């Protein structure tokens, strides 16, 4: 996914929210955390959430301070933590995957089939954004 977006020449920032049992071991979680740090991604681990599912605000301070033209959520579940992060962001346009949580998006894409890969979602999203930008 990261390589695809980078290949399109798009500047981006990433926040990854750990959901459920994503990792088989502490080592794999630590390895992924290292990958995120190396890439400059924010990794919201389940241990950094309070009992309500609200992440540590210091962890997201830099992300929330950025003025964005576009924020894309590739979470297709009803994840409170992901919704909370999206709602706190300063973005002129929000795009998400249906069904999403409680966030009001400017554009929601439905897979129209059982599942849509992240790459398929991004290709569709880029197509819609190009049409909107061109005013067609």
Number of helices: 5
Helical proportion, percent range: 40-55%
Structural class, by secondary structure, is alpha/beta
Radius of gyration: 15 Å
**Strand percentage, roughly?**
5-15%
Low-confidence stretches: none
What do these coordinates show?
The structure is a single chain. Helices cover 40% and strands 15% of the residues. The chain is built from five helices and seven strands; from the N terminus they run H-E-H-E-H-E-E-H-E-E-E-H. The strands form three sheets. It has a three-stranded parallel beta sheet with strand order 4-6-7, covered by helices on one side. The protein has a two-stranded parallel ribbon with strand order 1-2. Strands 3-5 form a two-stranded parallel sheet. The protein is globular and about 45 Å long.
Secondary structure elements and pairings:
Blueprint: H1 2-7, E1 15-17, H2 26-39, E2 42-44, H3 57-65, E3 67-68, E4 71-73, H4 80-88, E5 90-91, E6 94-97, E7 107-109, H5 118-134
Features:
136 residues; alpha/beta
Brief synopsis:
This protein is α/β, with parallel strands linked by helices and 136 residues long. The protein contains 5 helices and 7 strands; from the N terminus they run αβαβαββαβββα.
């Amino acid at each position: 996914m990261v390589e695809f977006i980078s290949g399109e020449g798009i500047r981006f920032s990433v926040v990854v929210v750990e959901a459920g049992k994503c990792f088989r071991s502490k080592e794999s979680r630590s390895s992924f955390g290292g990958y995120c740090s190396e890439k400059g991604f924010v990794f919201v681990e389940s241990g950094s959430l309070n009992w309500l599912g609200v992440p540590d605000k210091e962890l997201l301070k830099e992300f929330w301070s950025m003025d964005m033209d576009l924020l894309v959520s590739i979470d297709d579940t009803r994840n409170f933590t992901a919704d909370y992060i999206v709602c706190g962001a300063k973005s002129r346009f929000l795009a998400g995957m249906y069904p999403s949580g409680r966030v009001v998006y400017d554009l929601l894409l439905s897979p129209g089939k059982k599942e849509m890969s992240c790459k398929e979602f991004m290709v569709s999203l880029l197509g819609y954004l190009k049409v909107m930008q061109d005013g067609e």
